[in-house]
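Q: Got a minute? One more chain.
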Amino acid sequence: MAKKSNNRKVKPFLYLGFFAICWWGIPSSIKLFTQSTFREFQAPIWEISSRIEDLSNYWGHLSDSKRTLITKGKEFKRLTSDLELQKIRSKEIVTEINRLQNLHQSISRLNKLLNINSSQNFESVIARVSVRKMSGWWQQMTIRKGYNNRLQIGNGVIYNKGVIGRLINVDSRSAEIEIITNPNFRIVAHFGNDTRPVTFQGNGIDLGGQPYGIVLDVPYDIIPKKGEPLQLITSSLGGNFPHGMPIGNVYKLEGAEDGLFKTGKVIIDRSINEVLEVTLLIPE
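A: Always. Here it is, folded:
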């Protein structure tokens, strides 16, 4: 019994060895032919498998649920609408760019016609005050410099708190300043948060010693906030002062008689009554 069992175990190895010897002895041409034949046999199976996979994907797409198709349709519609919106915005941007370019060219032409130089430089000349007239009816100062120091009528005058006035008379060694509170004093100005020009005019000193003026031609959409007065500053359009010099503060605006613009009281710093030294601006 043990001998028969051992023979059964050995036989497979004998067959395998015999097959290996036979395969080794077969010519190479026969081996190549056999391999090629085997591949030819497998090729249809692989093709059928690939076609079955393609067909499965095709039917899978066709069997998408109605909800999925609706979702895809909505997404496509949203993308199309967004594309149209971007086209409209692009046209609007191009139109705005063209408008700004035309506006820039118009401003350049107006500057040339009006001979406006917004970046004009000034030479500063310091002068001491010799006479001060600050009554309710007359607001003038006299300084100790004149045309010997190249001063001219119309030169702007400032101090550490802003605008104080301009020269109205010039002698060889002295000059007279028309104070900003004088009713004859008028200049072009604008508010610190708005570039539109307005008109400032002096209006005297009240009984309490408060210097003030009035602002005219204020656009109706300018409104001072409670507790936050509007600061009035000089404009380069005036010519005698650089841009941005403080004039005063406006706490309230009222409608003018023409119904188109507003007017308001401009409160000027009280220190203007005690100025001892001023700076004169000589255009370079």
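A: The radius of gyration is 48 Å.
Q: Perfect, thanks.
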